[in-house]
Specification:
Oligomer: heterotrimer
Largest sheet of chain A: 8 strands, mixed
Shape of chain A: globular
Number of strands of chain A: 12
Strand order of the largest sheet of chain C: 6-7-8-3-9
Structural class of chain A: alpha/beta
Largest interface: A-C, 30 and 30 residues
Chains: A alpha/beta (about 300), B mainly alpha (about 280), C alpha/beta (about 200)
Structural class of chain C: alpha/beta
Helix content of chain C: 25-40%
CATH class of chain C: Alpha Beta
Number of domains of chain A: 2
CATH topology of chain C: Rossmann fold
Chain lengths: ~300, ~280, ~200
C-alpha cells in the first residue's frame, strides 16, 4: 500500500540576521505497510515520528524540504498528490479531542468528513449513524458537542471521523497518549479492527508496549533514521532483536531492566554516522564515520555495521 | 493577493522585503505630497476632464486640477488621521485590557461590559455620532475613530494577560521565588508587547478606511480639504458623466495603502513569534 | 519532612471534593509513589503540595514550618508537558537561569548540551526539554521533587535515562521524591512506599 524509501526531511532556519542553516530532522526513513496490517513506528521522542505523519498528509511547514521515494498504491507520491489524497485515501486519527471543532455537533463533523471523502450529502447522515453504530455509540451522541463526550467516546468519534470515508491508509499519531488503560486498550482494539477489515494502519507511538499489543510489524526509529524492522513477536526478550537500540529500548521498560539496563554513555559524537553511537557498546570508528546501509536479517531489516 | 506566490523566498527575506516595500510606499506618499501636492490646488480650466495620460497619470477633474497631486495629498491626510486615531485607540485598548486582567473582578466586569456595548453598537453609527458631536473636522474624525476602535484589541489583551496569569510557567516562576514585578517585566511584557504592536498595525487600515468613510458621508473633514473620502464623494457626481478616473484612481490607491498595512501587520507578527521567526 | 495533614480540595466552593482528609509525609531521601488513573485529582494534590494552590482544609508543612510565600519554594513540581512549563519566548539559557544558573556538573549529569543554550523551547524534543526543566528545578535549595507524570510522554529509553539521573541526584542531595504516575510498573520499580488514595477498588 505505502512504501517509503530513504525519506529525508530538512528544515532551513535562521540563526542570526539572514544567516541560514539546514537541520535534517529525518535523515533516512524506510518503511512499508500493506493491506490488513498494523505497522507500528516506535522510537525516541523527538526523532521525527510525528513529522512522518505530517509529511504523508502534506502539511509540513513551508521551510521544510522533503526528498526520497514515496509510493502509494504503486504510484509515486508528490507533495501535491498528498494534499489531494489527504482525507480521501489517507486519513489521520489525531491525538486528542482538541482536533474536533468545539462549536459543532459531532454528528455534523462526521457527516462533513464523509462528504469531503466523496459520499453524497444525502447519504452522509445515514453513513454517520452507521459509523456511530459501528463504534457502539448511540444515535443521540451525534447531537452532542465535543465537550459533552467522555475521553473514550471522543476517541471513538475521532476514529469514526477518520474512517467514514474510503481511506485505505489510516495514520494514528500517538493515539493512546493521556488515556487510562481501559480506553487505550479500546482505541488500540479499533485500530486492529480496521486492519482486519482490510485497511493499512500506520501506528506512530512512543509507547512500545501499546504498539506491541496490536502491531504485526514494528519499525524502530532512532535519531531520524530507521534502524530496524522487526516482527512484533521478535520483542520477547529472547535476543531476536537485531539492532542494539531496539534492545536498549525494550530493556529500558520499567517492568524489565529499567535504569539498571542503561549502558554507559560513550563520549563519541556522531553527525554523519550511526545515530545510536552514544550508547552503543559495540561502536567502532566505522560507526562514527558512516551511516550503515540496510541489511536483511531473519525476516527483518537492520541498519547496523555489526549485525 | 497571495504574497507567497509573488515572492518565492523563505519567510524572513520575504518579510523584510515586504516591510521595506511598505515603508517605501508610505515614504513615497509623504514626500510626493510634499513635493507635488500643491499642484492639486491649481485650477486650469483649459485642461478640464482629461482622462489619464502620461502627463496626468490620474487625469484631471472638472476644474482641471491634477488628480495625482490631489490623491497624494489626500492619502497623506488620511494616513495622518488614521495613524493618530489608531495610536490613540491602541493606547486606550492597552490600558483597559491590562486593568481588566489585573485589577480584580469588579473592574473586569465594568470593562467587559463597556467592550460589549461598544461592539454591539453599529460601527458607522457610533462614528457618525461622535464625529458630529465633536463638531466634525480633522479633530472630530480622529476622536471618533479613536473612541470606536479600541474594543477588539482590549479583548485580545485582556484574554492574553488572563491566560498568561494562569499559565504553568508563570505559576512556576512564583514558586521559584520571583516577585510580581519581575514576572510582569520578564514574562508578561515580552508576550503582550508583540501582540500589541501587531494589533496596532492591524488597526491602521480600519482607522484609515473609517476616516475616509466619515468624510465621504459628509460628517468628517470639510469638503475643501482634499481628503480621500472627500475626493471620492465629489467624484460620485461625475461618475455618470463618464469621468471614471476620478473615483478609480484615488479609490485604488486607498485600497493599496490599506492592504500594505494589513500585509505589514501579518509579516511583523510572523517575525516576532518564536515559532515562525526562524522559518 | 514534607507533611500534609488532613488536606482537602475542591474547585467550586460548593462543588464535590477532589480529595478530603489526606495525610501525606515524605522524608528526605525517600521515594514515595502515588499511582492511579487520570482525572482523579493526583495533579491537583501535587499542585497543592507544591504551593500552587491552597488547600481548603488542612495544612502543609516542611519540617514543622508552613510553606513560605514569595521565596524560593523548596518543594518543586515537574509537569507532564514540559513545553507548557517554560516561557516559549525565552531561550534555554535564560530558562535555566531563572532561579539560579545551574552548575556545570548538574548540566553534565542531566546531559544538557551546550549547543541548546541559544535555542527556543520548541526546538528541543520533549525529553530534552524535560531535562532542562529538571535542571531548573534542581536548585541548591530544593529539598523535595514532585514528579507529576514527568516521563509519561517519553519513550522507554529516554524515560530510563531521566530517572537514572534523577535517582542519582536525589541520593547525593538526600532529596525527597513523590512519583505520580498511571504506570504501575514505573512506580513499583522506583518506589518502596506507595500511597493508594487514588486507586479505586475494582
Amino acid at each position: 500500500m505505502l512504501d517509503i524509501k530513504s525519506l529525508s526531511i530538512g528544515f532551513s532556519s535562521y540563526s542570526f540576521g539572514l544567516k541560514k542553516h539546514t537541520v535534517l530532522a529525518i535523515r533516512s526513513l524506510d518503511l512499508s505497510v500493506s493491506k490488513k496490517e498494523v505497522l507500528a513506528v516506535v522510537g525516541q521522542s523527538g526523532a521525527g515520528k510525528s513529522l512522518l505523519a505530517h509529511a504523508l498528509l502534506g502539511i509540513l511547514p513551508r521551510n521544510a524540504s522533503l526528498s526520497g521515494d514515496l509510493t502509494f498504491k504503486g504510484k509515486k507520491l508528490t507533495p501535491k498528490d498528498m494534499a489531494l489524497l489527504r482525507g480521501r485515501e489517507i486519513a489521520l486519527i489525531p491525538q486528542s479531542m482538541t482536533y474536533l471543532n468545539p462549536l459543532l455537533k459531532v454528528g455534523v463533523q462526521i457527516a462533513r468528513a464523509a462528504e469531503l471523502s466523496g459520499v453524497s450529502p444525502k447519504a452522509s447522515w445515514k453513513a454517520t449513524l452507521e459509523a456511530l453504530r459501528r463504534y457502539r455509540l448511540e444515535e443521540k451522541i451525534a447531537r452532542r458537542f465535543p465537550f459533552q463526550l467522555s475521553g473514550g467516546m471522543a476517541r471513538r468519534i475521532l476514529t469514526a471521523t477518520a474512517t467514514i470515508g474510503k481511506a485505505d491508509l489510516i495514520l494514528a499519531d500517538e493515539p493512546t497518549n493521556g488515556l487510562d488503560q481501559a480506553t487505550a486498550g479500546e482505541t488500540l482494539g479499533h485500530l486492529r479492527g480496521l486492519a482486519d477489515a482490510g485497511k493499512a494502519v500506520l501506528l506512530i507511538t512512543h509507547d512500545i508496549e501499546a504498539a506491541l499489543s496490536i502491531a504485526d510489524r514494528v519499525t524502530v526509529f532512532c535519531g531520524g533514521v530507521t534502524v530496524e524492522e522487526a516482527r512484533a513477536s521478535d520483542f520477547n526478550g529472547s535476543g531476536k532483536l537485531r539492532h542494539p537500540y531496539s534492545r536498549a529500548l525494550w530493556d529500558a521498560l520499567p517492568g524489565r531492566g529499567f535504569v539498571k539496563s542503561l549502558p554507559a554513555r560513550s563520549p563519541i559524537s556522531s553527525s554523519g554516522g550511526c545515530p545510536f553511537i552514544f550508547f552503543c557498546e559495540k561502536s567502532t570508528p566505522l560507526c562514527e564515520g558512516s551511516l550503515p546501509g540496510i541489511k536483511n536479517l531473519n525476516q527483518g531489516c537492520v541498519r547496523c555495521h555489526h549485525a | 493577493m497571495n504574497v507567497h506566490a509573488l515572492l518565492p523566498m523563505d519567510r524572513r527575506s520575504r518579510t523584510i522585503a515586504v516591510i521595506l516595500g511598505c515603508l517605501a510606499l508610505f515614504a513615497c506618499v509623504f514626500t510626493g505630497a510634499w513635493l507635488y501636492g500643491d499642484r492639486g490646488e491649481v485650477t486650469a480650466l483649459t485642461l478640464r476632464k482629461l482622462p489619464p495620460s502620461l502627463q496626468y497619470p490620474f487625469g484631471t477633474d472638472w476644474l482641471g486640477r491634477d488628480m495625482l497631486a490631489r490623491t497624494l495629498k489626500g492619502l497623506r491626510i488620511s494616513l495622518r488621521v488614521g495613524l493618530t486615531a489608531a495610536g490613540c485607540s491602541a493606547g486606550i485598548a492597552l490600558l483597559l485590557g491590562l486593568c481588566a486582567a489585573t485589577l480584580g473582578r469588579a473592574v473586569d466586569a465594568v470593562i467587559t461590559w463597556l467592550v460589549d456595548i461598544a461592539m454591539a453598537t453599529p460601527h458607522l453609527v457610533l462614528l457618525i455620532l461622535i464625529s458630529f458631536a465633536c463638531g466634525g473636522g480633522e479633530k472630530g474624525v480622529i476622536i471618533a475613530v479613536a473612541a470606536s476602535h479600541w474594543p477588539s484589541l482590549t479583548r485580545v489583551i485582556r484574554a492574553e494577560v488572563l491566560a498568561l496569569r494562569s499559565s504553568e510557567y508563570i505559576q512556576l516562576s512564583r514558586q521559584l521565588g520571583k516577585r510580581p514585578l519581575y514576572i510582569a517585566r520578564h514574562h508578561m511584557l515580552p508576550h503582550v508587547l508583540p501582540q500589541f504592536m501587531v494589533g496596532l498595525l492591524l488597526l491602521f487600515p480600519h482607522a484609515i478606511l473609517h476616516a475616509a468613510a466619515l468624510t465621504f458621508l459628509g460628517f468628517g473633514m470639510s469638503p475643501h480639504t482634499p481628503a480621500i473620502g472627500a475626493l471620492l464623494a465629489e467624484s460620485m457626481r461625475y461618475l455618470s458623466m463618464g469621468l471614471w478616473w476620478l473615483a478609480v484612481a484615488p479609490g485604488l490607491t486607498l485600497v493599496i495603502t490599506v492592504k500594505a498595512f494589513d500585509i505589514l501587520g501579518g509579516n511583523v507578527r510572523a517575525l516576532l513569534d518564536p515559532k515562525t521567526c526562524r522559518e | 519532612m514534607l507533611e500534609a495533614k488532613k488536606v482537602a480540595f475542591r474547585y467550586a466552593t460548593d462543588g464535590p471534593w477532589l480529595f478530603q482528609g489526606l495525610d501525606i509525609d515524605i522524608k528526605p531521601g525517600e521515594i514515595v509513589g502515588l499511582p492511579g488513573s487520570s482525572g482523579k485529582g493526583k495533579s491537583t494534590l501535587a499542585k497543592t503540595l507544591a504551593g500552587y494552590m491552597k488547600p481548603h482544609q488542612g495544612s502543609i508543612r516542611i519540617d514543622g514550618h508552613p510553606l513560605q510565600q514569595k521565596a524560593f519554594n523548596p518543594v518543586q513540581l515537574l509537569f507532564q508537558h514540559p513545553e507548557l512549563a517554560v516561557n516559549p519566548r525565552w531561550k534555554i539559557k535564560k530558562l535555566l537561569a531563572e532561579a539560579a544558573a545551574p552548575s556545570s556538573d548538574l548540566l553534565t549529569e542531566l546531559s544538557i548540551d551546550e549547543s541548546w543554550m541559544e535555542r527556543y523551547p520548541h526546538e528541543l524534543s520533549g525529553g530534552e526539554l524535560q531535562r532542562v526543566c529538571l535542571a531548573r528545578a534542581l536548585h541548591p535549595k530544593t529539598q523535595y521533587l514532585l514528579c507529576d507524570e514527568m516521563t509519561s510522554m517519553l519513550d522507554a529509553l529516554t524515560q530510563a535515562i531521566i530517572w537514572k539521573a534523577v535517582l542519582g541526584i536525589a541520593k547525593k542531595r538526600n532529596l525527597g521524591l513523590l512519583v505520580i504516575s498511571h504506570d504501575s510498573a514505573l512506580i513499583s520499580s522506583l518506589c518502596r512506599r506507595t500511597l493508594d488514595y487514588f486507586i479505586q477498588p475494582v
